[in-house]
Design brief:
Radius of gyration: 14 Å
Distance between the termini: 31 Å
Number of helices: 3
Largest sheet: 6 strands, mixed
Helix content: 25-40%
Structural class: alpha/beta
Length: 136
């Protein structure tokens, strides 16, 4: 299934954020896009993130969601899978979620709940489509 323009914009926001981190070697950023030569690896649960950076002692997983799918069961399972992968990683780790502004607070609350219930010790950045962000 093709991704919506909004989804592609949100993936690009994550890419831009990751690429601007001082420690990131941009050639190791993998993007799930029709134009990418190297797609991100799937998690053990079978989910493929939109962005994956795994190099040296760093792991970053990024996922973009629209207002129509950010709270669907499939998305919730993805968040859990990605947070579990980060939680098990022994180095520096970060999960990034990009969503439209109108679901920014709801998305933050969802991730806080998932993080608390599962006792994940993972830093999370939530980015909205106006480039505002919050760290939880």
């Amino acid at each position: 299934m093709g991704e919506s323009i909004k989804h592609i914009e949100l993936v690009n926001l994550i890419y831009e954020y990751v690429n601007n981190l001082a420690y990131v070697e941009n050639c190791f950023i993998e993007v799930d896009s029709p134009y990418s030569l190297e797609k991100p690896a799937k998690t053990l649960d079978g989910f493929r993130p939109d962005i994956l950076y795994s190099f040296s002692n760093d792991l970053i997983i990024g996922e973009a969601k629209t207002e129509f799918d950010y709270n669907k069961e499939h998305s919730l399972n993805q968040y859990k899978s990605y947070l579990k992968k980060c939680d098990c990683f022994q180095g520096n780790k970060l999960f990034i979620l990009a969503v439209p502004l109108n679901v920014f607070i709801s998305s933050k609350n969802l991730l806080l709940k998932i993080k608390k219930v599962n006792k994940f010790d993972v830093p999370i950045i939530i980015i909205n489509d106006f480039k505002g962000f919050d760290r939880i």
